[in-house]
Amino acid sequence: MSDCDNKLNGCRVLIVEDEYFLANDLEVALKSHGASIIGPFGDFDAAYRRAARDHFDVAIIDINLHNRAAYPIADELIRQGVPFVFYTGYGGEIIPERFAGVKLWQKPFDPLELVEDIGRLCRR
After folding, report:
1. Could you name the CATH architecture of 4-122?
2. pTM value?
3. Exposure string for 37-50, b = 16+ CB within 10 A, e = fewer
C-alpha cells in the first residue's frame, strides 16, 4: 500500500459521472482508501447545485453529462478554490483554455493511479 491510503481518510470527494458503472468503480476505489464520497451525480443540475452549496476537498468531473458540458461545475469549484480533475473519454483538445492547468484522466485508466492523484490533491 502507498502512503496515499491513509491520506484519503476524511477526504471529501465529489464525483460527477453519468455512467453508473464507472461512477460505482470510482466510488468503490476511493472509499476503499478511506475517502468520503459525495454523489456520484450523473445529472448536471443536481451536480451543480451540490457543487455550489457544499464543501469538498476535491472533485472528479466527467466533462460530458448526458450531452451537456460540465464546465460550469468546474467554474464553480474554481471560484470556491476546490481542486478537481477532469475524467473523460475525450481527448484534451475539447477542454477550454481556462482549464489548462487541470489534470485530465482519460477513460479507461487504472483506479489506483487516480486514488494516488486524489490523495495528492486532498493534501494540498
Report:
1. 3-Layer(aba) Sandwich (3.40)
2. 0.91
3. bbbbbbebeebbeb
pLDDT tens, 13-51? 999 999 999 999 999 999 999 999 999 999 999 999 999
- What are the pLDDT digits (tens) for 43-75? 999 999 999 999 899 999 999 999 999 999 999
C-alpha cell at position 46: 443536481
CA distance 87 to 96: 14
Please tell me whether residue 39 adopts helix, strand or coil conformation.
strand
d(C-alpha 40, C-alpha 5), whole Å:
21
